[in-house]
Amino acid sequence: MHPATHVQRQPLKTTATRGCLLLFTLVLTACVAASPTPVGITSSPVPFTPSPSTTGTLPASTQPSPTPSALPPDFWQSLPVIPAAISDRVREVYRLGLEMGNNPHVFSRIGDCASAAPAFLTGFDRDYDLGEYGYLQPAIDYFSGSFERPSVAAKGGLTSSGLLTTLWTDELCENNETLLACQYRLDGPGFAIISIGTNEAYYIHNNPASFEINLRLIIEETIARGIVPILGTKADNFEGDNSINATIARLAMEYELPLWNFWLAAQPLPNQGLLDPSHLSTISYINFTDFSIPHSLEYGVQMRNLTALQMLHFLWGQLVIPDPVLTPTP
């Protein structure tokens, strides 16, 4: 059964929606650029230079493979929320990461305000109620402590180019260290949930190639560090032509990476899980991971947390269970 379509849906209550609108004005300030003004590709990314301490030897088969050139523009819209299987390339990257000393119990959160604390995933290390999704508990147990890890690479206003420069770093980062490299050094993760794109709408029409160029750099640096990239689509179409989600899905296919197609999970929700054209709706601004709350999975933030946890559970089942000897304990 589709992971995001078996939730019983009932009409929303007007009072709940009105409350969200009032509270959202407080949260929205965290989703706009509170850091340096986002820059496009015109701000030169700091090149990542692999070194023996940060990379291992990837088999040739982990390089990107050609994707069909005749894909229709909306091909990605029918891809499942959670894939059915992972590629051999992902297994190779995962094994490489273990050899390099990455912690497979840790994932990094990479993205804009939708990936930032406290709304995204952190509740699974605090207060949560899985409701009818109790089967996901092993993923929470396995990644315990990772959900609430701070992320300097998940913040309001962030763009793909911001991840590749030093403009958005803070005191936790080293001199001349990009935001992406800083987060990976701090975490030493086995996985990275990379969900970026909403803020690209401000730049992509001036430079349509910029997002793909940046995302390729992000993917390739992540793989070179032995970290499994999880690419996520977004619920919105802030750019107006869905080109960002199409690029995310196409690169996931090209690099044979797991795609978390959150866009599809959001489609059945009221207003496609959006409060406004670029921000997700939520039923609660206190608890984002309580799926026992009536109607909670009719809101974007709650559905995003559920499906992200489903993706982590999927990878746990695909990578950890088959190779338990390779996976160290925390």
Question: Can you put this structure into words, describing what you see?
Answer:
With 330 residues, the protein is α/β, with parallel strands linked by helices. The protein has a domain at 98-320: SGNH hydrolase (Rossmann fold). The protein is built from 9 helices and 6 strands, in the order ααβαααβαβαβαββα. It has helices at residues 14-28, 88-100, 137-142, 160-163, 179-187, 210-224, 243-255, 262-266, 300-320; strands spanning 103-111, 189-195, 228-232, 259-260, 274-276, 279-280. α7 links the parallel β3 (228-232) and β4 (259-260).
Can you write the helix and strand succession as a string?
HHEHHHEHEHEHEEH
CATH superfamily (homologous) name of one domain? SGNH hydrolase
CATH topology of one domain: Rossmann fold
Low-confidence stretches are: 1-30, 32-44
**Number of helical segments with 4 or more residues:** 9
Summed over residues and divided by their number, the pLDDT gives a mean of: 84
So what's the overall shape? globular
What is the topology, as strand order, of the major beta sheet? Answer: 1-2-3-4
Percent in helix: 25-40%
Q: Got a strand count?
A: 6
- Our estimate of the beta-strand percent is 5-15%
Q: For the record, what CATH class of one domain applies? A: Alpha Beta
Major sheet description: 4 strands, parallel
Cα distance spanning the termini: 33 Å
Structural class of the secondary structure composition?
A: alpha/beta
